[in-house]
Amino acid sequence: MKVQIDYDLCMGDGNCSKVCPEVFEYDNDQMLARVTVSEVPAEYADRVRQAAEECAPGAIVVEE
Ligand code: SF4
């Protein structure tokens, strides 16, 4: 699984970094989240999907 953030949509609330901090890091200076892995480890896949579902603007793009 791969995951990206669409910065045209991200509103910077940081929820993804609370749901799965192993994959999403919140940058307090930029007020944006970023993905810290190139490939999502299998054990975090469900929480990455959850973060994508909870991302209100739909900014998390998951590639299975
Ligand atoms: S949950 Fe979505 S809108 Fe919020 S910081 Fe993460 S990618 Fe951006």
Task: Summarize the structure in words.
The structure is a single chain. This protein has 64 residues and is an alpha+beta fold. It contains 2 helices and 4 strands. The strands form 2 sheets. The chain has a two-stranded antiparallel ribbon. A two-stranded antiparallel sheet has the order 2-3. The longest helix has 10 residues, at 45-54. It binds iron/sulfur cluster. Keywords: Electron transport, Iron, Iron-sulfur, Metal-binding, Transport. Residues 1-29 form the 4Fe-4S ferredoxin-type domain. Ferredoxins are iron-sulfur proteins that transfer electrons in a wide variety of metabolic reactions.
In short:
With 64 residues, this protein is an alpha+beta fold.
Question: Biggest sheet, strands in spatial order?
Answer: 1-4
- Can you give the helix content as a percent range? 10-25%
CATH architecture, by name, is: 2-Layer Sandwich
Proportion of strand residues: 25-35%
**Alpha-carbon Rg, integer:** 10 Å
Number-wise, the strands total: 4
Number of helices: 2
Instruction: Determine the N-to-C terminus distance.
Output: 5 Å
Shape label: globular
Whole-number tally of structural domains: 1
User: Main β-sheet: number of strands, strand sense, barrel status?
Assistant: 2 strands, antiparallel
Q: What is the CATH C-level name? A: Alpha Beta
Give the class from helix and strand content and strand pairing.
alpha+beta
Average the pLDDT over all residues and give the rounded result.
Answer: 97
**Low-confidence sequence ranges:** none
Looking at CATH, which topology would you report?
Answer: Alpha-Beta Plaits
Question: How would you spell out the order of helices and strands?
Answer: EHEEHE
- Ions, cofactors, ligands: which are bound? iron/sulfur cluster
